[in-house]
Design a protein that fits this description.
Blueprint lengths: L1 E5 L2 H10 L3 E3 L1 H8 L4 E4 L2 H4 L6 H16 L2 E8 L2 E4 L3 H9 L4 E3 L1 H9 L4 E3 L1 H10 L4 E3 L10 H4 L4 H7 L4 E4 L8 H10 L3 E5 L19 E3 L2 H13 L6 E4 L10 H18 L6 H12 L3 H30 L2 H4 L1 H4 L11 E5 L16 H10 L2
Parallel strand pairs: 2-5, 3-4, 3-8, 6-7, 8-9, 9-12, 10-11, 10-12
Antiparallel strand pairs: 1-13, 4-5, 4-7
Helix pairs in contact: 4-5, 4-14, 7-9, 9-10, 11-14, 12-13
Amino acid sequence: MAGLLKISRRSLTLIRRYSTPLIYSDEVRTAKNDNKPIVALESTIITHGMPYPKNLETALEVENIIRNQGAVPATIAILKGQLTIGLTRTQLEYLAQAKDVIKASRRDLAMVVAGKQDGATTVAGTIISAELADIPVFVTGGIGGVHRDGEKTLDVSADLTELGRSKTLVVCSGVKSILDIGRTLEYLETQGVTVCALGESKQFPAFYTRRSGFDAPYNVVDAEHAASVLNAARSLHLSSGIVVAVPVPEERAMDEKKIETAISNALKNANEKGVRGKEITPFLLAAVSKATGGASLDTNIALIKNNAKVGADISIHYQKLRINAPIQSRGLHTSCRRMSDVLVIGGANVDRTYRITEENIQPRTGSMREDRLKRIYNM
């Protein structure tokens, strides 16, 4: 008697989908086992967004804000080729001072992992990682977008296309104001991304400033409202993401004319130096910080901390909705992927094989034994 496990093509797809090359920090692993709300965080803000030691201080403060709200932070990075969900303090300290860390978007992930290198995940890279780890809420400072003169250069951030094919809710302070905000909103619409401003107004923020001159299609009044939108999107099995744009705290917002002058000068300087591709954003942010005497960096830090609080609140409200949802409406994304659950794939069938070990068997014609042998050998 032999056991046979039959696995369908769909089951094999599920195995491939849920067997991912991730490692979790003890804190994140425990949170997943206990069904606690988790908030994903990117790591390029540490390696390319701020100088040391400000980058480390900010990363630690942001994580603590999320913990104090009642959620668990999961900073994501690639360390020596290993995609890591949740970093220890030692790992954060290492990343904050490491040299030659690669900005890892979708196109870079496989190369960095295969080369066993260090990689800091961009917004796009973090969205992919958060999807693999089943973390529905991700907090960042500002998302990428269509660059100014993007209609000529075709310089469009991979963040936008990733948002169009993910289910992640991204909390940010809008699009970085060094970009073309109007065209970015148009691109997000084409990708089917739900864009909401947080608060009573639909005014879309512009990172350093609270107003961009453009309206978001929708607004959510608070974190609970945002969580309900996420829950509805998951229930509908939508394959596109959500952007919740949070205005920078008013006391930290910068003067619109001053920041626009600094950006224009930085763009001109970048063009003269031939700065292109993924190096353009950190170059512009550094140039703007210098031009504003460090004020833009202070605003950057303030908005990230504020976004962390909002993101943690959304994650907490969403987790309550997910846990309290009827089992039939939760869907595969909320039940099978918990580390504490058991996923049964396919079915087990038992085949019986009969073998004749005696020699020279002479069945008697018309006997019950002959009938049995005929059935066995399909005679």
